[in-house]
Structure formats: C-alpha cells, structure tokens
Write a structure and sequence with these properties.
With 151 residues, the chain is an alpha+beta fold. The protein is built from five helices and five strands. A hairpin with a 6-residue loop joins strand 2 and strand 3.
Length: 151
Amino acid sequence: MRKLLRKIFLLDLVEGLKVTFRNQDPKRIYTEQYPAERPKVGERYRGAPRLNVNPETGETLCIACNLCALACPEHLIVLYSERNEETRRKELTTFTFDTSRCMFCGLCEDACPVDALELTQDFELAGYTREGQIFDRQMLEEGPRPVQYKF
Ligand code: SF4
Ligand code: SF4
C-alpha cells in the first residue's frame, strides 16, 4: 500500500527534484570557467617539457650527455651533438621530445644532471596531428607553438 501511494503521489520524483534544486545554489557549483580562468594544477604536476636556457646568455643548459634519452623507457627523446674543437665540449645540435606517447613519468627530468630538462605545469598539449606533438628544440626552449583551432 505504501509503495502504491509513493507511486501515485510521485514521491520519488519529488525527492529527486529536491536534491536537484538544493544543488542549484551557486555556492555549491564547482564548474571551472576554463579557459577564461586557468585552473590551478598541483605543485608537482608534470606537463609539457621545457629545455632550460641560461637567462643571461640565452644558451642552452643542456650538455648533450644523453642521460635523459637513456632514462626514457619509451625512447621518446632523440638528440644530436657536435664536439666543439676549441672548447672540446659537446654542443647540442638537435633535440626532439615526442609528447604523443609520453606518460610524464619524470624519469628523463630526474636523470638530467644539470636541470636542463624540466616537465612544466603546462597541461595544454592538445593538437590535431601526431607530428605536432613532437617538440623540437625551438619549441622546447621557447614553448609550444599555439594550436590553430578549426571551427
Ligand atoms: S616523462 Fe617518462 S615517458 Fe615521457 S619522455 Fe620522460 S622518461 Fe620518457
Ligand atoms: S640529461 Fe639533461 S643535459 Fe643530458 S642530454 Fe638530457 S637534457 Fe641535456
């Protein structure tokens, strides 16, 4: 009998609506207004890679030791260098980092002895092509090129 009355007076529906309207209170709305407001990401979040440069000289901090490439379990980092005959130092010529298959584990960053490679808090890595997900040295040093959105 009780069940029947509940059905006749649509009590379940009324209870459901009560929950819905209770949560309409603007104080209880948690929607983030992205991209107008950028959400805060965790301090230790690992996102887009960056190759750090000396802020005074603009020269790369990378010493082309290849340790990051060796540390990567997915072999996503490829770099080449040349020996400078005057200084006898290796100089970085090209550096690519494939973010399309990266799991942002941070092993490459940890392996770098001079803090040249860093995974930043930038999470906006969407793109339209796989090729666009491969960061070259310029993108790594200056930041990713903005994606041309198609509407
Ligand atoms: S974060 Fe991990 S998977 Fe990505 S490049 Fe570095 S070592 Fe490889
Ligand atoms: S580990 Fe650091 S210094 Fe060595 S090649 Fe990678 S980014 Fe450059």
